[in-house]
Amino acid sequence: MENQAVYFKGLFSKRLKHSSDMLSAESPFTVMVRKEVADHVRSWRFIVMVILIILTFIGSMYVSLGMIRNAVANEKDPDHLFVYLKLLTITDHTFPPFHIFISFLGPLLGIGLGFDAVNAEQNNGTLTRLLAQPVYRDNLLLAKFTGALIVISVLFLSLGLLMIGGGIIITGVPIEPVEFLRILGFILLTILYVGFWLSLSICLSVVFKHAATSALTAIGIWLFFAFFYGFVVNIIAKALLPDNGFMAPEQALAYNNLLLDLLRIAPGQLYNDATTTLLMPSVRSLGPLTMEQMAGAIPSPLPLKESIMIVWPQITGLIATITVCFAVTYRLFMRREIRT
Amino acid sequence: MENPIIELDGLTKIYGSVRAVDDLHLKIGKGEIFGLLGPNGAGKTTTILMMLGLAEPSAGTAFVCGLNATTNPIAVKRKVGYMPDSVGFYDSMTALENLMYIGRLNGIPEEQTEVRARQTMEMVGLAGEMDKKAAAYSRGMKQRLGLADVLIREPEVIILDEPTLGIDPSGVKEFLSFIRHLSRQQGLTVILSSHHLHQVQQVCDRVGIFVGGKLLVEGNIETLSRNLFGEESFTVVVTVRDPLPASWNLRKEVEQFAAIRNINVSDKSVEFSCTEDLTPDIVRFFVEKGLNVMGVHKKEFGLDDIYQRYFENNLKKNISDGKSGGLFQRSFFKKIKTQ
Fold this sequence. Notes:
Chain A is mostly helical. Chain A contains 15 helices and no strands. Chain B has a 6-stranded mixed sheet with strand order 6-7-8-3-9-10, with helices on both faces.
């Protein structure tokens, strides 16, 4: 820095130049993340998404608060003592619980925050200008991802904490540490899930030059996995697999597991599996269980560690898909021509 | 050249089968204003991107400020300011915010960012428009903001890609004289790419003409014109009031001047091409002949003529070589003629 200052002698006051040696500047990455967060928070599309999510949150909380008395009194339910988990999961079947809503709205939020991350910069001519600064090229991608992830995390964390706080005020029941950890796990999972759609849409924003194309492709992928994928897998399974009635039990079990594994390619399925297990402690398995496996089991809630063990493959799967999307984005972006 | 600040050695960039930049050797000295001239698609921007390490050369090396731009781009980008041809800003931010963002990215401490940004804005003459949204900026203002963007980090070299594109003529003049002033005052090295020849001519110390990825020629304008036009480097046009008598045999009469190579007579004017400056002699000759001289114009060869001459040569060569590049050059040739 010092030798550069020579060329601008007298342009900027001496006082400033002296102090520049003492002050340390932020790293370019932090600066970029800060700008991304500011951009998201001020953008209309984020505000609209947040309003939508907050409305569904209030809606589902309203419904479950109305039913919480009956749910907690229901002694047949092994989970009936977990008031706060019940708040998140019970429903009167007219309004779905919050985690089901998020499995639909989460992708939209992720896509909304990422679909024009890179191509908008390129189309506006800001990409060349940005990369002509002394910053590493991958810092841009990383900042885009981190910035949006910070925004999402803050949103869901504050919603979760608001729910707990509101619950304490309304019901007067203190929260169990296990419950708190489970809810925290649910929030982290939600962030991961939205993070997957975010990284997918950032990847598409590198692939496609036009923001509209990348948004539509991302929404197409989301719709495919949300509505058609299960349908397609079932049709193919029906056509290819023999009829259930003619199969030995072991064979039927094997086919059933295969079917479930195929369905779990969809990230929405992974998310649903994982949230159900975390929010309903009595869930012991995500697939079919044989009678021998069930023998001697008492219908009681599992400890947190066991629940996490059950959903560990799902969590790993989500992290893996995020990593794959991110790696593809890197591969495409790092050596690409940045000219408009 | 002693210690060039930019040294390109055999720089080559190949896109598929196209050689966008072909074996480029170039040295640019410190404090120089160098003009990269050439038609669109000649490889100017590609060369610039390689100097900044934003594109990887297929062969050869680019050294900027003694650093290899391909292997050490961050260090190079700290010393080089680059203004792209279609400079864009974040529309949702004000001009000052845009500039402060760039300042922060360049590691200017937070406490000084705003002061520096304001000073730079004042320097480029945007003091009154600082708090306007960048979206409300006109093309010329954006160009100035782009320059502020380059200057805020106090670079050693500034590279301007088509800086005059889309600005009105008076704006261009102001912009270029500002750049020249800046370069002279602070010893900045400036590289300017353009296809507007006369504009570049006003400010550049040296120019390089680029065609089809090759640097055809480099040097200052006088040298270029002497090399090219050789003998006929002085042209004098004399205009008279009354039409010249058709019977008058001018050719014979001016034989006394050995330096005259060619005479071109039209209705009221005569064009002399000569090897030395004969303007006073020719005027005296006309006056002695009793002709009413209305005007005398000494033509100096500008870049336009140099450019055109190079194209002519190149065109002929390409046609005889049967190269496909000729088609493109021909269409460009037509374009500069109609300008």
